């Protein structure tokens, strides 16, 4: 009996868990060894001749990369649920399947959105900085006053998997009223969470807390711009765990400085990493985390299993476990 064909796979970063062992057993795998990602030039060099790529959300996989890999490339398996870093049109044109890692990170990312909402609302960053920097003075009745979610209105922009998990937490945990935007009606959300689908303008005007959960597309880039921010309540808290490009960051700096919204909690920014000199960094009432929404052992190992399954299926010409529709 002939040996099964071994494919060439490039993995652009070490990933947690044992899933990569399964890939190594079946195929010839090279893993980028550094903590820092390959530069665009290094990526082009390393993909040449590969049948499959296992990529990170920070790797830009455009037509140049797909062509540099060569016509034998069958699959790009992204170690993320988001796939805005991949040129889907180029993938389709070159007959390459694209995989992503949904569901296993939904709870962790929704938890982080709740964390950011509470941390921003209760000014946790400013308080912790006072302690760290020796500025903790006498207890003051009106120091670091925040806002409470209980019974208020939460607006979820994009009622997908994570949007829904976040909404469940806020409605069940804090008895909040739910408004959301969605491209289609969601009867289950309306029934089980007493949600109401509205347009973005109404959501921004009526919500005390707004959390972004849409995918980044040409339609959602800069969705939250100066005009959108101006529609929000001056007491509102804005949370973003989706993608940095969905918010116009210059407009957000102006809105926070001008007191046009109360606070913001961001897990994602443009660029990433955000340089410490950026005007958002250190701004009171803005808390920024380094894109850790899915950073739990459980989620990242689950993502690794799916990403490896996607590569194994893709190089074998089978449907992927989680395949991104290419239109
Ligand atoms: N901070 C982090 O570590 C993480 C961030 N994410 C981000 O969260 C996003 C959402 O993930 P999931 O909920 O699993 O994806 P999903 O596909 O279930 O949800 C995305 C939602 O956005 C909606 N949408 C897309 N374009 C829209 C538009 N123009 N207007 C209104 N709605 C629109 C879709 O209909 C869908 O309901 C990912 O695309 C990713 O960017 C995901 C996981 C971790
Ligand atoms: O999965 C994603 O899209 C992330 O941003 C990180 O898990």
From TrEMBL:
<keyword id="KW-0560">Oxidoreductase</keyword>
<dbReference type="InterPro" id="IPR006140">
    <property type="entry name" value="D-isomer_DH_NAD-bd"/>
</dbReference>
<comment type="similarity">
    <text>Belongs to the D-isomer specific 2-hydroxyacid dehydrogenase family. GhrB subfamily.</text>
</comment>
<dbReference type="InterPro" id="IPR029752">
    <property type="entry name" value="D-isomer_DH_CS1"/>
</dbReference>
<protein>
    <recommendedName>
        <fullName>Glyoxylate/hydroxypyruvate reductase B</fullName>
        <ecNumber>1.1.1.79</ecNumber>
        <ecNumber>1.1.1.81</ecNumber>
    </recommendedName>
</protein>
<dbReference type="InterPro" id="IPR036291">
    <property type="entry name" value="NAD(P)-bd_dom_sf"/>
</dbReference>
<dbReference type="GO" id="GO:0051287">
    <property type="term" value="F:NAD binding"/>
</dbReference>
<dbReference type="GO" id="GO:0030267">
    <property type="term" value="F:glyoxylate reductase (NADPH) activity"/>
</dbReference>
<dbReference type="InterPro" id="IPR050223">
    <property type="entry name" value="D-isomer_2-hydroxyacid_DH"/>
</dbReference>
<dbReference type="Pfam" id="PF00389">
    <property type="entry name" value="2-Hacid_dh"/>
</dbReference>
<feature type="domain" description="D-isomer specific 2-hydroxyacid dehydrogenase NAD-binding">
    <location>
        <begin position="115"/>
        <end position="293"/>
    </location>
</feature>
<feature type="domain" description="D-isomer specific 2-hydroxyacid dehydrogenase catalytic">
    <location>
        <begin position="9"/>
        <end position="323"/>
    </location>
</feature>
<dbReference type="GO" id="GO:0005829">
    <property type="term" value="C:cytosol"/>
</dbReference>
<dbReference type="Pfam" id="PF02826">
    <property type="entry name" value="2-Hacid_dh_C"/>
</dbReference>
<dbReference type="GO" id="GO:0016618">
    <property type="term" value="F:hydroxypyruvate reductase [NAD(P)H] activity"/>
</dbReference>
<dbReference type="InterPro" id="IPR029753">
    <property type="entry name" value="D-isomer_DH_CS"/>
</dbReference>
<dbReference type="InterPro" id="IPR006139">
    <property type="entry name" value="D-isomer_2_OHA_DH_cat_dom"/>
</dbReference>
